[in-house]
Amino acid sequence: MIRFLSRSTGTSPSLYANLNQSTPRCLRRCLATSATERKPLFDKILVANRGEIACRIMRTAKKLGIKTVAVFSDQDRNALHTTMADEAYLIGPAPSAESYLQQQRIIDVAKATGAAAIHPGYGFLSENSGFAEQVTNSDLTFIGPPAQAIIDMGSKSESKIIMTRAQVPVVPGYHGENQSVEFLKKEADKIGYPVLIKAVMGGGGKGMRIVEKPEDFELMLESSRREAIKSFGNDTVLVEKYITRPRHIEVQVFADKLGNAVYLFERDCSVQRRHQKILEEAPAPLLSEELRKSLGEKAVAAAKAVNYVGVGTVEFIFDTDENKFYFMEMNTRLQVEHPITEMITGTDLVQWQLEVAAGNPLPKMQDDLAINGHAFEARVYAENPENNFLPDTGPLLHMSTPAPSDIVRIETGVRAGDEVSVYYDPMISKLVVHGSDRTEALRRLRVALGEFEVVGPKTNIEFLKRLASHPAFVAAEVETGFIKKHESDLMGQAESPRPVLLALAILHLAKSDLAAARQSSPVPDPWGVLGGVRLNGVPGTRTFTFEGGVGKGTVSFGTITGNKATATVSVTDSAGNVTEFDNVTFDLTSGAELRAHIGGRLVKISVSQVGDAIHVFCDGEHAVLNIAQPAYVLAQEKKDTGGSIRTPMPCKISQVMVKAGDKVKKGQPLVILEAMKMEHVIKSPHYGTIQKVHFKAGDMVGEKKLLVDLAEE
Predict the structure, then answer these.
(1) 532: helix, strand or coil
(2) pLDDT tens digits, residue range 583-629?
(3) Looking at 333, 409, 444, 542, which residue is catalytic?
């Protein structure tokens, strides 16, 4: 039976008893290689996770010639990690509790497929000591730390007691077992306000309350306990000094089973929303080399205090005012932000995990490790920054990322066409960049964010662009309250699109019209070609108006030869200013890219149209323009305030977006019609429930036919 291996397992205990970082590097390597021959890596592993981290692990496994087994839920049948693996097995319905948290099912799949080890990734079961023990008791290797280390570091209060014994500095506070309200209040009074109440089993900001003054303590304590019991089933709390201008700095540590432990320097994760990281960098800016070394050594001491094995992250809170750091907690797993550490150290931490789990020494010792340049990681989420960063869901109708390279990494588990589901974390991707220094890396981050395109759910991309360009962030004036402090700048209102973006949107619509007209008949029917555009080169004119007073424009065609067209475009912006673009030439080739010579320059942009919404991506900007509904559609919507929605004209049903029984909101798209080579979105005139849908996609329907029965609420 394979059990967790102590640091002395496989070697003579006396051989490594005095082996440490002060031992000459050549001697350490000689002793390691003489004591143990390098052990082979696993032939096959199971990845007990999903999304980008599962894909990340599989890439390294493939590089090393290790076969991978994926597990997936009903929701993830066609997910990227499912298709990347050599084998994939269904383990349950969409909810995590019924699939990715089903420990025995996962172990059963590993045994049945001949996998020798299980990699838990991060989240889900990665810090579950019971799962780690169950894996090893099943004659499998858990690619993670010993179960006891997970237990020791899983409790915020217990871990701080252990750290105090190991002489690792902790935040002043009370971390004991006495949980009476009166006692905790007295401890808070001793510490001095403001204080922080934290659930000992907490994470992600749950069960955490800041108390500014004594009279609020009991109310905040009760609130913290309520949230903690709901989230973790444990309402034990600790009380600590609240640091008013803190930075969140964490150190990457790694230990093997032979007694070696190193630190791979630190990351700054101070920029957070809802107590969750959004933009990380490595190394942490504005730290002295002396302080950096001290942080690393204390982090290694923390790992050794619990006989740690594998990859871990020791998190510190840094008091900016006093230039002191304090232990906060240890994450006993691979972190989301590990790629920036890999970028500055030239390592593959997943490969290190596999080596250590197989019983091999660390690939590098402390003297081999050095910082090379600077790296940033931006987390691209499906969320709405303007609505307190609440998650959004829905299909990824269009997704295009910067080109991966040695200095740009795209860590994702989705692609265009996939859905961001309500069941799992809404992260779409991690964008990781590297530069020779912080200035260069930050410049590359801004460029790469401008190349990141997503259409579908709302995202935080525009917010990240503003964040990466903010003068205070450029100056590295980071702290955990950064977003709140600069909220008015970061949550800026969307500006009206520039005239050239209006013109490009109009060219896209004109291009779509011409393509549809030419496809419909080689000899054009004048009734089938919109706006008098003729394919024999005779000029024609089209006018488009966008909703919300954003602007409007007119395109007047010159000649059309093959796949090239010339035109004059006149646009009127939201302020009423008119801009003329003469002698515009553009390609009529199909696809999302629009190529045009306009305003004296060649532009190659990406355009995505979803119903009446035109998404224009140009020069790092993302403009969304909604085509104003024709008067007859608006009149029909106004008329249909009862329970029926009818076709405004003869048309083809392009897409049905609802079904019987669906609850709909006012303004929600119900059906997309195609008429006169244009799409028209029929929206719900009020809140209600769909009783019946009368047609399906592809049906040809006459004028004023009943499309949907809608019961008003």
Answers:
(1) helix
(2) 999 998 877 889 999 999 999 999 998 888 899 999 999 999 988 86
(3) 333
